[in-house]
Design goal:
57 residues, mainly alpha, 0% strand, elongated
């Protein structure tokens, strides 16, 4: 590694973001189910997950 290159994101930051996403997902799913049908909520979650993972393929 050269001195001018920056290391990737801190592992602690990534860990915090992952824990935050998992811990708040139940709240957001509950709120979404009050507004939309369960099948629509599942489809939206699948689309968003696919878009997030797309750059890593």
């Amino acid at each position: 590694m050269t001195p001018e290159s920056r290391p990737p994101a801190s592992p602690f930051l990534v860990l915090f973001l992952g824990i935050f996403a998992v811990s708040t997902s139940a709240v957001f799913v509950r709120l979404a189910q009050m507004e939309a049908a369960p099948l629509a909520v599942a489809a939206y979650r699948l689309v968003f997950a696919s878009l997030i993972l797309l750059p890593f393929t």
